[in-house]
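COMPLEX REQUEST
Ligand: adenosine-5'-diphosphate
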Amino acid sequence: MTILRVALDVPVDETFDYRGEAAHRQDIGRLLVVPFGSRQRVGVLVGVADTTSVPAAKLRAPLRVLSHLPPIPQDILDLLTFCSRYYHHPLGPTVLGCLPTALRRTTALPVTRSLWYRLTDAGRQVAADGLPRRAARQQALLTELQQAGALSLDALREMPSGRRFLTRWLADGWVEAVPAEDVPAAVASGVHAPVGHSPTLNAGQREALSAIRAQGSGFATHLLHGVTGSGKTEVYLQLMADQAATGRQSLLLVPEINLTPQLQARVAERFGRDRVVALHSGLSEGERLQRWLRAVSGEASVVLGTRLAVFTPMPRLGLIVVDEEHDPSFKQQEGLRYHARDVAVFRAREADVPVVLGSATPSLETWRHAADRKYHLLRLPDRAVAAAAPPVLRLVDTRSLAGHDPLSGAVLEAVEARLSRGEQSLVFLNRRGYAPTLYCHACGWVAPCNRCSARLTVHLASRRLRCHYCGHDERVPVQCPSCGNQDLLPVGQGTQRIEATLAERFPAARIARVDRDTTRNKDAFDQLRERVTHDELDILVGTQMLAKGHDFPRLTLVAVLGIDAALFAPDFRAEERLFSLMLQVIGRAGRADLPGDALIQTTLPTHPFFAELLSQDYAAFADRQLRVREQSGFPPYSHQAVLRAEGNDEHPVFEFLRAAAVAARAMALPVIVHDPVPAWIARLAGRWRGQVLIQSEARGPLQALLRDWTPGLTSTRVRWSVDVDPNEL
Ligand code: ADP
Ligand code: ZN
Ligand code: ZN
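STATUS: Structure written out below.
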């Protein structure tokens, strides 16, 4: 008897057995359509067996094997199985959730090779003669088409106006469709020399490159530490070119916000458009499937993608790169709560290929591995192009500022100076790590938890202070326990208040506010960028959205407000995130010809954070943070998991969590099980939310606890989930 073990997208942690035939033993990894209840579902054949506990009468046969689709290779099935176990998410939803959605439909989209185009004789003539200068864009595209031999519709679509030109040229007889059977010859996979030219590397880049190459083609983890603009991407491109030259594929993972058309163009220019597949969340189902198939076939030399791309099957994988490895967006916050950087390192080890992590501000987890020599640290100390002089940083002590006045005199003066010179200012308000912490403006006291090293959080409605970690709870004091000041305020300011203050002070200035309220859609944000670029704005007031990736050449002042709260946020990662953000924001100011200033308002000018920030010394910052983490036993010196629960009523949520905590403690493992606490946002959309944090010095006992504990957790009135290595508590 041949029993098929099929993973289905059903939220139970087991596979489903079907009656198969001997021939099915070849089909492991294939997608199948199977009967499930009265419906049909798509599943993945993850294994075969000789026996089953399902009675023969109940055993059903699959309806069909989707053999026109490539099977999920064994290495990816193993990777998904590992993730399912490690993150304690059922196997079926893990496997199916990591495939392109188009594959999960019982009526799968037809798989066509995408269409390809090449120049006709007439087209080649035009390309050779050259187009008028105003048609530079068309000319560039023609030249590229000529050099590549043929381009896919996918590739043409991604080029500016590519679609429009294609239509026109088809009508003019300059291009023709390439017969599908000619395509493999035109872009045969295999050994391939990069097409674009690379700049001459500087000493730092050469050193990093040869150090990485010296480690060979097997598994090793490298950390490439260098500020934005230090030439990290150039190093990745060279390493990926090494791979392409020997017929191997590279996986380049980036945070969503960094997967810009500029980066895609840069990679495409180096490798040829049809050698690069970009996978991100903005694709239609059909597009994603087509691109995924090109990665799976081995045709793509480079797969460039956001977190989900870490699961892309690549038959000739030779290298993985994770750019901005510290970026929180690598952590998936629902379903399979994986961290794409961690999965990437695991995948590289299993595949026995090198993995390169790049960042200006590496995560402390990564930094610690580098300090322990588990990762191989390489530095790019200087900017690759010495265009922008780093801005001059200055702290503005706002302790004497009245508690209600958001902007200091120093900042107002600096803005005024920009206005008179026709330059632009950015007033940046930090909202990240924002927590209503109780704070004394007179002496700088903040409410500490006396049971753990965290800060207490104000819950104004109940007039109580709570520890977000251990559950300690007390009344809001009427006066500062340290100096007696009775004017204790929760820290925090809004962008609207700041905009209003600026408008009042500078009535003639053109001011724009940029936050989630004003730029809900992408168009609004693009328009704003246009206005800044065309000098139609004098002052920008904004939050995180303005931190990275935009070049504003006339911006010469960055004023940073509201970061003190993040320095005593209850989230122990707040300071780490803040440092990273600050380096980015400050980098917005100034160009070669227009030097910039950065002013940072704070009531804590003596906090060591600022000395490290002013000297832009990430190593000093990271080393101090690691000492703090070690003393308080926080990650990376311990491992955490959170059990989260939510429900329509408060009582069942906390009953569930209390019972869960009792059960966890009963297992008597070397794991700390904290008391249930309300979630950070205790009530969201009418639902009550709570959580239990568990923590252990070693991963083993934590995993052992989760393995035995979670199957016993059941509730009909509460929805719950487990988050391993949570990024946020
Ligand atoms: P990062 O990835 O660290 O931000 P990039 O590799 O993008 O840095 O380099 C920043 C800029 O410097 C890019 O415009 C890049 O083309 C350029 N660049 C990088 N390395 C060199 C080099 N060796 N010579 C000249 N320009 C370089
Ligand atoms: Zn506490
Ligand atoms: Zn005080």
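REMARKS: The chain has 22 helices and 31 strands. The pocket of zinc ion (ligand 3) is lined by residues 440, 442-443, 445, 480, 482-483, 485 (CB under 6 Å).
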